Amino acid sequence: MKYYEICFSPTGGTQKVANAVTKGLTQSASKVDLTDAKGNFDGISLTKEDVAVIAVPSYSGRVPETAAARITRLQGHGASAILICVYGNRAYEDTLVELQDIVHQVGFKVVAAIAAVAEHSIARRYAAGRPDEEDRTQLAAFARQIAQKIASGDSCEPKIPGHRPYRKAGATGIVPKPTKACINCGVCARKCPVGAINPADSRKVDKKACISCMRCVAVCPHSARKVNGLILFLVNAMLKKPCSQRKVNELYL
Ligand SMILES: Cc1cc2nc3c(=O)[nH]c(=O)nc-3n(C[C@H](O)[C@H](O)[C@H](O)COP(=O)(O)O)c2cc1C
C-alpha cells in the first residue's frame, strides 16, 4: 500500500489542509504537485491497494479547470481517494461532487470527503489564519477514522453534498499586476500554474490564460504583484456578509 498526496494549491491553503489529513494517515506519502505547469501527470498510476488524498480549492463553487484537467491525466486503478475541497469561508457549492465525478472517471473509489476552510486567497482578511490548530486537530482525528474505515475493508462511498448539473463556472477576471517594485526576477513566471506570465518579461501577462489564482502575488519575493486596490475593495465588500462568520469543516465518511 502506498500513500499519495495529490494537490492543486496556488497559494498554499489547500496544501496545509491536505498535509493535516495526510499526517493523520501516514508518515510518508508521495507528493504530486498539480500546481506545477510543467508537471508530467500522465505517468502517475496507482494500484487498488493505494490511498490518495486529492485536494483542490473551490473557485466559484467549482473545481478549478486547470486542476480538473490535470487530475484526469492520473490513473486510479481502483485506489481509494480521500477528497478535499478547500474554500475561503464563503461556500464550496458543487466543488466536492464535481471532484467526485472527476476522480471516478479516472478509476478512483471515494472513501471519504472533506470541505475545509482556509484563508481566502483573494480577500485575505476572510478566514485569515485558517486552517488553525483547532482545524488541524479535527482533520488529523478524522484521518484516523478514515484509516480505520479503509483497514476494515468498508468500501461504501459517502454521500457528498452538491448539485448536478453543477453551477456555471465563472472566471473572476481579476489579473494581478506588477508594481514599481517589480525587478523582473522571474519567480512569478516560473511558478504560475498556467504559464500566463512571460518568463522574459514578468510585467507581461496573458490575461486570457490567467486563472486569477493569486499565486504570483503570494510567491513574489518583493511583494511586487498586486490586485488593483479598487477591485480588491469591492471584492472584500461583496464577501463581507457571506464570509465573516466562522464556518466549520464538513467531514463525510
Ligand atoms: C478565482 C478564485 C475563486 C474563488 N472562489 C471561492 C468561492 O467560490 N468560495 C469560497 O469560499 N472561496 C473561494 N475562493 C477562495 C479559495 O477557495 C481559498 O482561498 C483556497 O484556500 C485557495 O486555495 P490555495 O490557498 O491552495 O490557493 C476563491 C479563490 C480564487 C482565487
The fraction of residues assigned to DSSP E strands is 15-25%
Order of helices and strands: EHEEHEHEHEHHEHE
CATH level 1 class label of the largest domain: Alpha Beta
Number of domains: 2
- Major sheet: order of its strands? 2-1-3-4-5-8
Largest sheet: 6 strands, mixed
Low-confidence stretches: none
User: Whole-number radius of gyration?
Assistant: 18 Å
Number of strands: 8
Number of helices: 7
Task: State the end-to-end CA separation.
Answer: 20 Å
Q: What's the average pLDDT?
A: 97
Derived structural class:
alpha/beta
Domain Flavodoxin-like: 3-147
Domain 4Fe-4S ferredoxin-type: 172-202, 204-230
Keywords: 4Fe-4S, Iron, Iron-sulfur, Metal-binding
Organism: Bacteroides mediterraneensis
Characterization of this structure:
Residues 3-147 form the Flavodoxin-like domain. InterPro entries: 4Fe4S_Fe-S-bd (IPR017896), 4Fe4S_Fe_S_CS (IPR017900), Flavodoxin/NO_synth (IPR008254), Flavoprotein-like_sf (IPR029039), PSI_iron-sulfur_center (IPR050157). This protein is an alpha/beta fold and 253 residues long. It folds into two domains: 3-165 and 246-252, Flavodoxin domain (Rossmann fold, 3-Layer(aba) Sandwich), CATH 3.40.50.360; 177-226, Alpha-Beta Plaits, CATH 3.30.70.20. Helix content is 30%, strand content 16%. The chain is built from seven helices and eight strands. It has helices spanning 13-25, 65-71, 95-105, 133-151, 187-191, 215-219, 229-243, and strands spanning 3-7, 30-33, 51-57, 80-87, 109-117, 177-178, 225-226, 250-252. It has a six-stranded mixed sheet with strand order 2-1-3-4-5-8, sandwiched between helices. Strands 6-7 form a two-stranded antiparallel ribbon. Strand 3, helix 2 and strand 4 (80-87) form a beta-alpha-beta unit. The radius of gyration is 18 Å and the shape is globular. The model has no long low-confidence stretch (mean pLDDT 97).
